[in-house]
C-alpha cells in the first residue's frame, strides 16, 4: 500500500487472533466478535476477514445495518447481529441478507409486526435491560408480553441477551451479581438457541458459566476492560508519526494556539504531523511521545493536523515517533488524559492509514 502520510497505525491481526484464543480458554464458550465502531478503530472489514470461519467465533456483532450488509457483501457467512436499532424502512434489507436484529421494546416489536410484509421472518435477539437502562425489556411482565405477541411467520427469536454495567469494576461485584440474577429470573423457563450476557470484562473477571455464547469486544483488541495494564492480552494497535520539522525557539517565546506554553530557555521544538483531526485530542497536551529511546513532552495546544514537542539535539527530521505502542500503552495513555482506551482507539480517524501485519 502506498503511504500518503507520515501518520499511520499498525495493527497486528495475529495479536487479535491470539487474544481470541486467550479469552476462549478462560470461558470455553463460542463467541460473538464485536466489530462495531470500525472494530474499535481497527478496521471492521479486515478484522472480520481475519476471523471468518474462526472455530471460536460463532457470530459478528455490529452497531449498524450498513456494517452488517458490508460483511455479507464481503462473503462473511457467519451469523451477524445488529446490537442497536435499525430504521423500520430497512427491515427488508435485514431479512434479505439474513441479519439478526435486536428486539428491545414493545413499541419496536409492534412496529416490526406492522412493517413486516416479507415471505420469511426477521431473526431477532431479545434485549433484556437488567440495569443499564439503555435498551431492552426491564421486567418479566414486559418480556412475557412480548413473547405472547411474537408471530412465528414474522419474527424468529434466535437469542436473548443482556449487558453488564459494572463487570469491569471490581468494587461493584454486587451490582454485577444483581444484574445476572435479574436476567436469569426474567428469562427463567424459556429456552433459546443463544443466551449471552458475558462481555469481555465478565469473561475475564467473573467467569460465569451462564449462557452458551459470549461477546468479545475490547479484549479482542488486547485491552483490559478494567483499564489496567494487561498481563495476558496483546495490544493490537500502535500509532506512529514522523518528525516534520525541528527548530530552536528562543527563551520566552510562546508555542501554539492560545500561547499556553512559554519556553524557559532556548528550546528545541519538533513539529509532528498529527492532531485532533486524527483523533489525537487536545487533552494530550503535556503528555509524552517516544522518539529514539526517549520520552519527550507535548508542548502547546494540539492543533487540528499538527502538534509540537520539546526535544533535544538528538531528534532529527523524519525520526519515527511512537504515540502509543510498545513503549506507551493505551492503558497508561487513557489514565493520563482521564478517559478509557475504548475512546482513544475509536477516535482514530479514517485519514490515519492502517497497515496490517499477520
For the record, the CATH class of the largest domain is Alpha Beta
Domain module count: 2
CATH architecture of the largest domain: Alpha-Beta Barrel
Q: Proportion of β residues?
A: 25-35%
N-to-C span: 15 Å
Shape: elongated
Order of helices and strands: EHEHHEHEHEHEHEHEHEEEEEEEEEEHHE
Calculate the mean pLDDT score and round it.
96
Helix content: 25-40%
Describe this structure in words.
This protein is α/β, with parallel strands linked by helices and 358 residues long. The chain folds into 2 domains: 13-221, Alpha-Beta Barrel (TIM Barrel); 237-339, Lyase, Ornithine Decarboxylase, Chain A, domain 1 (Beta Barrel). The protein is 27% helix and 26% strand. The protein is built from 11 helices and 19 strands. It has helices at 13-27, 36-40, 44-51, 65-73, 91-96, 106-115, 140-149, 173-187, 200-205, 330-336, 341-346; strands spanning 8-12, 31-34, 57-62, 79-82, 101-103, 122-128, 155-162, 194-198, 213-216, 237-242, 245-249, 254-255, 261-262, 267-272, 288-291, 294-299, 307-311, 320-324, 353-357. A hairpin with a 2-residue loop joins strand 15 and strand 16. The longest helix is centred in the N-terminal third of the chain and has 15 residues, at 13-27. The two termini are 15 Å apart. The mean pLDDT is 96.
